[in-house]
């Protein structure tokens, strides 16, 4: 069910970022990119469980979206959006200078990972905050365009190209095909899923 927007619940933040930096470096993220996100207040460390806190901001720089990612490498990873998060302002890295291109990812870590692999801040890099897809064999559900992408395109009308960088699994391929179809004709669509099945860009950066 659609939830009403409430005030964003920002977790209590740690005074240090040592654990988050160590975790992201272990995932293959370049230290320069980590430092950039910290300095621009797009990344924090929570005080309680030392989660990585990825922040999306509106045009005025006000935090509107928070995604928490556990930094413990044992067991199933913790992932959660903070209460009151507005997906229209999901985590996004802006290019250096002007750009007419946008790349989309399922998660914030994959956004940082692809930038690490390419080494160029030449386009908007947007995390969709996950994708919604049926499980294999389930009845196909109606497709809805990602609110994070729709909002970015509305804020940045100069964008002409969308690069789809979702995960190369069933959900990622299903969402990629529907996103390509939904925006075809209005934008130049480029599909750039990892070539290895079952992989995402976070896996490739770690390797």
Mean pLDDT: 93
Helical/strand content category: alpha/beta
- Return residue spans where pLDDT drops below 50 for at least 5 consecutive residues: none
Query: From the alpha-carbon coordinates, what is the Rg to the nearest angstrom?
Result: 16 Å
Q: Could you tell me how far the N terminus lies from the C terminus, measured between alpha carbons in angstroms?
A: 39 Å
Strand content: 15-25%
> Residue share in helices?
25-40%
Overall 3D shape: globular
Find the count of extended strands (DSSP E, 2+ residues). Answer: 9
Write the H/E string, N to C.
HHEEEEEEHEHEHEH
Supply the number of helical segments.
Answer: 6
Largest sheet: 5 strands, mixed
- Sequence of strands across the biggest β-sheet: 5-7-6-8-9
Give the helices and strands, then pairings.
Layout: H1 18-26, H2 31-39, E1 43-45, E2 52-57, E3 63-69, E4 79-81, E5 92-93, E6 101-105, H3 108-118, E7 124-127, H4 147-155, E8 161-164, H5 170-183, E9 188-191, H6 201-206
Parallel strand pairs: 6-7, 6-8, 8-9
Antiparallel strand pairs: 1-2, 2-3, 3-4, 5-7
């Amino acid at each position: 069910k659609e939830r009403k927007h409430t005030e964003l619940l920002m977790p209590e933040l740690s005074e240090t970022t040592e654990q988050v930096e160590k975790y992201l470096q272990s995932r293959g993220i370049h230290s320069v990119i980590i430092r950039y996100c910290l300095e621009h207040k797009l990344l924090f460390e929570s005080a309680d469980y030392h989660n990585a806190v990825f922040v999306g901001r509106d045009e005025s720089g006000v935090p509107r979206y928070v995604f928490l990612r556990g930094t413990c490498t044992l067991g199933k990873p913790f992932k959660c959006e903070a209460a009151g998060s507005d997906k229209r302002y999901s985590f996004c890295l802006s290019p250096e200078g002007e750009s007419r291109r946008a790349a989309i990812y399922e998660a914030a870590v994959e956004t940082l990972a692809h930038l690490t692999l390419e080494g160029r801040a030449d386009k908007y890099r947007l995390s969709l905050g996950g994708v919604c897809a049926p499980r294999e064999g389930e009845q196909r559900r109606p497709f809805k365009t990602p609110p994070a992408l729709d909002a970015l395109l509305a804020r940045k009308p100069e964008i002409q190209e969308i690069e789809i960088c979702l995960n190369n699994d069933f959900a990622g391929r299903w969402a990629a095909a529907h996103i390509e179809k939904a925006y075809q004709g209005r934008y130049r669509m480029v599909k750039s899923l990892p070539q290895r099945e079952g992989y995402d860009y976070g896996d490739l950066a770690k390797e």
